[in-house]
Design goal:
This protein has 146 residues and is mainly alpha-helical. 71% of the residues lie in helices and 0% in strands.
């Protein structure tokens, strides 16, 4: 199912939201981490592949990207990274666990309200993309197509 062809106006609106997020001032490293972690949680192979490739192209460390799935156990991630990743998990899994107070306080301890709002919209946006890709059975490219 090609959602972009079936509902081009809606697909363009999601793409415009994604563009707005990129232009919003969210730290690029954090944006890569948020997109990758949400995509891992949502089981979106297409998006995991895409966001790893984009992060590598932007110079992020390959070993660090391999460890995003186990970020709590890795020294690669500083307090801002950890707060953004914790926020990503809570917002992505909101139906299961809500947003725990301790997570909200952690995020408020290292980000301004504007930054939290930007991160929240970024997380919501990647969750939309994950749902589009997974529900439409979008496949990531292999080998040289990558």
């Amino acid at each position: 199912m090609n959602i972009a062809q079936l509902t081009p106006e809606l697909y363009r609106a999601v793409a415009a939201l994604d563009t707005a997020v990129k232009k919003s001032g969210v730290d690029n490293r954090l944006l890569h981490l948020v997109k990758l972690r949400a995509s891992q949680i949502n089981g979106c192979a297409f998006c995991v592949n895409l966001h790893v490739k984009e992060a590598l192209d932007d110079g992020l460390d390959a070993q660090m990207l391999h460890l995003v799935a186990v970020w709590r156990e890795s020294p690669f991630f500083d307090s801002r990274d950890r707060a953004a990743l914790e926020w990503t998990e809570s917002v992505t899994l909101v139906a299961q666990s809500g947003i725990p107070d301790n997570v909200f306080e952690m995020v408020r301890g290292v980000f301004s309200e504007t930054e939290i709002a930007q991160l929240t919209i970024a997380i919501g946006t990647i969750n939309i993309w994950n749902r589009i890709a997974v529900s439409s059975r979008l496949q990531h490219p292999l080998g040289e197509e990558n």
